[in-house]
Automatic annotation (TrEMBL):
It comes from the Eukaryota. InterPro entries: F-box/kelch-repeat_ARATH, F-box_dom, Kelch-typ_b-propeller, Kelch_1, Kelch_FKB95. Residues 28-74 form the F-box domain. This is F-box domain-containing protein. PROSITE patterns: FBOX (PS50181). Residues 21-30 have a biased composition (Polar residues). SUPFAM superfamilies: Kelch motif.
Amino acid sequence: MWDSGKERPQKRQRLDKTEENTMSEPSSSALTSLPYDMVLECLARVSISDHTSLSLVSKSHRSLLRSLELYGVRSRTGRTEKCIFLCLSIPSDPFVRWFAFTPKALNHPGRLVPIRPHLYQPSEVSAVVAHGCGIYIIGGVIGGRRSSKVFFLDGRTHTWTNLPSMLEARASAAAGVVDGKIYVLGGCEEGKARIYGEVFDRETQTWDVLPMPGLDEKCLRFPMVYESAVVMTMEENKKVLALSGAAEGLLYNPSEGTLKRGNWDLCGKRRGWQVIENVIYSCETGGRILWCEATEMERLTHKGMEWGEVMGLEDLRKTLCASKLVSYGWGLSDHWEYFKRERASQGLLKAHVDDVYPGHKLSSSGPNLLLFWDVLGPHKLEIFCAEISLQRRKDTGQIGGNVEWSEVVMTLDPPHHQHQQHCKLLYSLSLDL
């Protein structure tokens, strides 16, 4: 009896292991045993914010979540979500870093998904555009020199592709997408530009020179571009807008192949253009968020572009004034020297470029603005994001903003001393995935 009783626990142990294995596999095998189309339909209902956790279940889950067919189903069934991509320069990291998050995931710490860096991405002042399923990083600075390299970051798979290089090396160029093609203007080396503008055909993967009738010598003397956008003009066609280093507006019409001079604006005080429903928004020194009609760029006036303040965000001003999240290091020496002279004459000289230019940054998410800023505490540096809905008053035409949500999206170690390099947000874009 003892021997028999002694064997039973061993037998029971083997049964328990069998049951344990049986229970650990169904979640994976049950899903993959379904027809492939049905599996995609099921996974298309899962929020992108849960993809990282779900991919840990098994290799088959991970493969399915990275399949391009899944995103096709999400698009076809109207289940796409806004996914925000941030590119940061972190002092302790030799590479610029991309992160992705969805607003739904903000209440879950650790949901900012790091993306494997591209080892050769320029460190700053690239032109970046979001189109389709990914982000194009165009030109920039590598080793202190302009680059012609172009990279594509697939927002679905978080993988990189090297695209054909531009015909001209560029940094701080304007870029915009019109009818599926990417138009790039300026950013050439001063006085040595052979090609001021070029266009990338995504279908043929080729670059072509843009015809530039109307290009004046001032564009070549001040080839750097500090702002760019794509807007619908008064003629109801899309144009690429750019604000040159000479504070002069430029409008390129792809349908006509013409470049025209537009209105002027201050390069330093207002930065970070974002266009939503043909209204240009920007950040201003002093913590304000401004707006103006895109048609302002087409008017030629001695007063320059007329801006108004987005009302309802006054409580954010003090916080935004203290932010130093945005990088203005490369290529702004001329404007910085000008501001130093101007402020010195007023007794307002400050010690660093970050004290002069706006330290908060705008991006867009559908009809809403995304606002980024940082808050430096004694033991941590927090990066915040807020989504702002916009509404125009019918009686006055003024635009007001309302903060829909505001959350910390990243926490970092603070700089150890005043002159240590600060974490910078280089680019922020959103994709529908």
